[in-house]
Design brief:
Elements (H helix, E strand, L loop, with lengths): L1 E4 H8 L5 E3 H8 L3 H10 L15 E3 H15 L4 H25 L2 E4 L5 E8 L2 E11 L2 E8 L2
Antiparallel strand pairs: 1-4, 2-3, 4-5, 5-6, 6-7
InterPro entries: DNA-bd_dom_put_sf, MerR-type_HTH_dom, MerR_fam
Pfam family, one: MerR_1
Protein name: HTH merR-type domain-containing protein
Length: about 150
């Protein structure tokens, strides 16, 4: 049986690990650096290093996605305030899913038959049980196992 750890997942998907500078963000979104700084001043986008004055701004992938989506909405006629609100609303389900997966993921196991079991940690109603997820015919299925 092969195992993967929580730290493997965290290294791959850690919040803020993938970042870009303001120039790259400008090129990706078609929004000038000056305009991006204005968006930051208004609180619509927040650089990862906002607490480090005088340093070049860097943005995590969440802010990159938000800036790109806002840019698209502005091109369709939204105001800046409305575009930011719309993007925040649309991003909420994805943020929730990210946190559920990131916070619950404990690791994975590959069984001898090749089946991958994703360890989601203790089962809340009964902490003596571990909750596992697996794919069966491309459908998520869950099972409980007693803690060893």
């Amino acid at each position: 049986m092969t195992n993967g750890t929580r730290s493997d997942f965290q290294e791959m998907f850690h919040k803020g690990q993938l970042t870009i500078g303001i120039s790259e963000l400008s090129r990706m979104t078609g929004v000038s650096p000056r305009q991006l700084r204005y968006w930051q001043k208004k609180g619509y986008i927040i650089p990862k290093n906002q607490d480090e004055p005088g340093r070049a701004r860097i943005y995590n992938m969440r802010m990159v996605i938000k800036a790109a989506a806002m840019s698209n909405l502005l091109q369709t006629g939204y105001t800046l305030k409305a575009a930011a609100a719309q993007v925040d609303e649309r991003m909420q389900p994805a943020q929730t899913m990210y946190h559920v997966l990131f916070d619950r993921y404990q690791g994975f196991e590959v069984a001898d038959n090749g089946e991958i079991l994703v360890d989601l940690g203790p089962f809340d109603p009964d902490p003596t049980q571990e909750l596992y997820a697996k794919l069966v015919d491309n459908q998520a299925k869950f099972e409980l196992k007693s803690k060893e």
